[in-house]
Amino acid sequence: MLQLRNAQGPRGRLLVGRTLLASALLTAVAAVPAVAAAPQAPATAASARSDIGAPAYQQVAHFYGAYIDAVMAEDGGRLTTALRTFYLTPHLRSQLNTWEQRNHADGVLRAQNTPLAFRVTPGDSAAGHTWSTVRLTWSGGKHPTYSYLTVRSDLQTGKISGIGQ
Length: 165
Hints:
- The chain is of the alpha+beta class.
- It is 47% helix and 20% strand.
- It has a four-stranded antiparallel beta sheet.
- It starts with 8 loop residues before the first helix and ends with a strand.
- 20% of the residues are buried.
């Protein structure tokens, strides 16, 4: 069995597992672009309304799970950059760089620290975008501390195009 020095306890094993899963997913997505471009059957009006925002919401959840794990990992810098490149639009990446230089914090998390947990809730869709709410948990116990981010995704590409508070 492979043992990593940082993988002590269940949280460490979960972190390593998620990080490895994220790396494998990025590799798999790059290897099969033809599958993503395959035509899909048109949805009916009823099913289209019930599925609005589902893929983008899932992309946001996948991104935040992998990103938080990568930030917590030792030497996770290259993975965080790869995740940003894959999940975020170029314009948003540029905005985040500007925000980070001005605020000396991580623009994706809007903080200098790493949250203990997160939860993504789907929101409304309009004008080619959908919005999700990301709740970041900063402390545990009886009275946990939360912060909330509004994340905008492009419905056509599924990429995250905006992060705000």
